Amino acid sequence: MIVGYVTAVPHPRSEAAGPARAGRLSLAVALLAGALGAAVALLATRQQWSEGTATVAGGAFPLTAKGSDVTGVPAALAIVGLAALVAVFAVRKAGRLLVAGVLALSGAGIVVAALIGAGDSSALDEQAAKASGDTSATVSALSHTAWPYVAVVGGALILLAGLLALRYGRLWPAMSGRYERDGAPRRRKPAVVDPDRPEDIWKALDRGEDPTGA
Question: Please, what is the end-to-end C-alpha distance for the chain in angstroms?
Fold first, then answer.
């Protein structure tokens, strides 16, 4: 007796469903993380990062510094990251990998700059020197807020979007080719000439066309 064994062959659609689902999910997460991260980083740089006092004429003068006073790197990289997130869909293949790398590096740069700025007192030292008229004056009673670490979270979200673009970007859709111009001139479709209308005949002759269609 011959016993036959039937091997189940996976359906092609089921095999393609996995990568397609991963592409859609990663795209949604990257868009959300990138946009939210840029917004959070920009918001954090406009908030107060540190405060202290300067001694002026025997009294204590309060000083504060916003994130943009401490460092302009997070705000600049947030804009770069947002632009890279949009540009990912305008390029393909190697170009997409390059833009995704820029997106990831923007997020990493925000994280590093914000962590450094969390303990930086140079902005308040400059204010103390101006307030006291002494270039060697420094701020005292220095303290920092949590906003630098909020900027770190924003940078981490942008970094996540960049890593997702590097890993799954090949599965994401690209800008339609109909929006891309190759520079070739388009052929004009000749206008329909009604032989019973003299004005159509004269217009065809002005365009250098044969109104008889010969």
Answer: 79
